[in-house]
Design brief:
Elements: H1 2-22, E1 24-25, H2 37-44, E2 49-55, E3 61-67, E4 76-82, E5 87-95, E6 101-102, H3 113-120, E7 125-126, E8 137-139, E9 153-158, H4 166-173, E10 178-179, H5 183-188, E11 191-198, H6 208-218, H7 231-248
Parallel strand pairs: 1-6
Antiparallel strand pairs: 2-3, 3-4, 4-5, 5-11, 7-8, 7-10, 9-11
Length: about 250
């Protein structure tokens, strides 16, 4: 009996580890403000990076980049601030029923409101479904999921297709914001249908010291011009960039 129990435990552990291994990181580390399409190609492989139409919230299609276009569980759409050179993303979006992409605080497509509220340890706020925000998370309140500094990841909820109680929907449809703890919202229990990151147009720091600090904190993808530095610092910075480049590729 004991070997069977141990085998079952081993299989369960393997399943959990496999699930964790297959998760993909949807964050500002993976999709930073200075990202380029060649960087995506180097990271994910040319067979998984294609050019095609991508769709924003209210606008029509625009030429962008699609990761894993033929894989529903991994597809990502990217629109660029500079569409010609395909650099500096305007937004990065994942949408659908399920996805391997997961935010740093563990949220993914298909997660329901009640489950996320339990993880957060506190009610959070989202826009009403018929308001301008269309069910988008507004803030985590004092919960523990609001721990992604320097990265604004949007989470959009929508009622399930089988939600038929119109009286419940009316209570939370037109509100500019509503608590996840609202009785009607608890009963509707909407699920996550979209994750997205929107970057401002990146600007190179005017102060060289700030630019160097950005590189040290966020990585060598941040813009820095060694020629603007004093001679001794310039040499050290150039050496650092040369040494780090093979590691980050």
């Amino acid at each position: 009996m004991l070997p069977i129990v141990l085998l079952a435990f081993s299989l369960l552990t393997l399943t959990v580890l496999t699930s964790q291994t297959n998760a993909l990181d949807f964050s500002c580390a993976t999709f930073h403000a200075f990202l380029t399409e060649p960087e995506l190609t180097a990271k994910f492989g040319p067979e998984n990076v294609t050019t095609g139409p991508v769709f924003g919230a209210d606008d029509g299609p625009t030429d962008g980049t699609i990761l894993f276009a033929n894989r529903d569980d991994a597809k990502v759409e990217i629109a660029w601030n500079d569409p010609e050179t395909k650099q500096n993303p305007l937004w990065i979006k994942v949408r659908g029923e399920r996805s391997r992409w997961r935010t740093p605080n563990g949220v993914s497509l298909g997660d329901d409101l009640l489950t996320i509220e339990r993880r957060n340890g506190w009610p959070f706020r989202l826009a009403g479904f018929g308001s301008e925000g269309h069910g988008t998370l507004q803030d985590w309140g004092v919960g523990r999921l609001g721990n992604t500094p320097n990265c604004d990841i949007k989470v959009s909820f929508q009622p399930r297709a089988n939600t038929t109680d119109i009286s419940l929907l009316r209570q939370v449809t037109s509100l500019p914001h509503v608590s996840s703890g609202h009785p009607a919202m608890q009963k509707i229990n909407p699920k996550v249908v979209e994750l997205w990151i929107r970057h401002r147009i990146p600007q190179s720091p005017a102060n060289p010291d700030d630019a160097i600090l950005d590189v040290l904190v966020w990585g060598i993808h941040m813009t820095v011009d060694p020629e603007r530095c004093p001679d001794d610092l310039r040499a050290a910075l150039q050496q650092y960039l040369r040494q780090m480049k093979p590691i980050c590729q």
